[in-house]
């Protein structure tokens, strides 16, 4: 299984991923959004689907401060991490 957890940074909400989510789900990926609850959005913290085979591809897609806001266990279990306009440290 191929899955993505996307997290936006300190501002904004999951709507920044709308076009990306559509593309990846059409191509067979399981897409989940981490949402901090800004604006009209309800907070949600997804997790990886560990019930699948060992060959899972788990991609964490982080914008801005996303890597600093996501749970460390989700970060550690990712097979790939994509940073977009992100900060590596403060």
What does the model show?
The chain has 90 residues and is of the alpha/beta class. 21% of the residues lie in helices and 26% in strands. The chain is built from three helices and four strands, in the order E-H-E-E-H-H-E. It has helices at 18-26, 66-69, 72-77, and strands spanning 2-7, 30-34, 57-63, 80-84. It has a four-stranded parallel sheet. Strand 1, helix 1 and strand 2 form a beta-alpha-beta unit. 18% of the residues are buried. The mean pLDDT is 86.
Structural class: alpha/beta
Extract low-pLDDT stretches.
none
Alpha plus pi helix count = 3
Strand content: 25-35%
Mean of residue pLDDT values: 86
> What separation lies between the terminal Cα atoms?
34 Å
Strand order of the largest sheet: 2-1-3-4
The amount of helix comes to 10-25%
Sequence of secondary-structure elements: EHEEHHE
Give Rg in angstroms.
13 Å
- Outline the biggest β-sheet: 4 strands, parallel
Q: Give a count of the beta strands, DSSP E runs of length 2 or more.
A: 4
Shape: globular
